[in-house]
Amino acid sequence: MAPSEKIVADEKTIGLYIPQKPPVVMIGKLLEVTGPKTVTSFLIREDNLFCDEGIFREPGLIENIAQSAAAGAGYLAREKGTEPRVGFIGGIRNLRIHKLPLAGNEIRTEITVEHEVFDASVVNGKTFLEGCCIAECELKIFLVNPEKQN
User: Fold this and answer.
1) Pairwise CA distance, residues 70 & 6, whole Å
2) Which of the ends of the chain has fewer CB neighbours closer than 10 A, N or C?
3) How large is the C-alpha radius of gyration of the chain?
4) CA–CA gap between residue 65 and residue 111 (Å, rounded)
């Protein structure tokens, strides 16, 4: 992370923006939320739920992208004075995993919201390791109505 980057949320406060709880939290820092763009980072630990023999597996990368989108939406909700909404992945398209990161690596994920219609969003996510794209996909995300969340 560049010294000039502001951290919007860290491991202690990321729970304010996403519904997931440990051990399923797959983002560590919320770095940026500007318009349709969200940027997060995540230090992969050896004991991570999605690590197998020191390798962070494909489901972890997908969950990281989805949680990065959730963190951006949660941040914007809190800015409007509302609670973040629970969402779920309704579809994955054009998934490409170029490389699997290792425990000890810190990945950076960038989300761009392409479309929002009612309670559905289409987002593009890209995950980077040391500046190289290691995973990318398009997610369809559906949000649960607040009265049905409890």
Assistant:
1) 19
2) C
3) 14
4) 7
Per DSSP, the residues of 99-146 read ---BTT-EEEEEEEEEEEETTEEEEEEEEEETTEEEEEEEEEEEEPPG
The sign one gets for the Cα dihedral 93, 51, 74, 2 is negative
Q: What is the pLDDT of residues 133-145, one digit of tens each?
A: 999 999 999 988 7
In 3D space, the residue among 98, 91, 77 whose CA is nearest the CA of residue 30 turns out to be 77
User: Which residues does 94 contact at the CB level (< 8 Å), separation at least 6?
Assistant: 136, 137, 138
Q: Cβ(133)–Cβ(127) under 8 Å? A: yes
- Which of 61, 131, 69 has its CA nearest to residue 97? 61
Q: What secondary structure letter does DSSP report for 83?
A: P
Residue type, 71: A
Whether residue 62 contacts residue 51, with contact meaning beta carbons closer than 8 Å, is answered with no
Q: Which two tokens stand for residue 66?
A: 């989805």
- Report pLDDT digits (tens) over 50-59: 999 999 999 9
Could you tell me whether strands 37-43 and 51-52 are parallel, antiparallel, or unpaired per DSSP bridges?
Answer: unpaired
Find out whether 101 and 113 touch, Cβ atoms under 8 Å: no
**Domains of the chain: residue spans and CATH:** 14-148 (3.10.129.10)
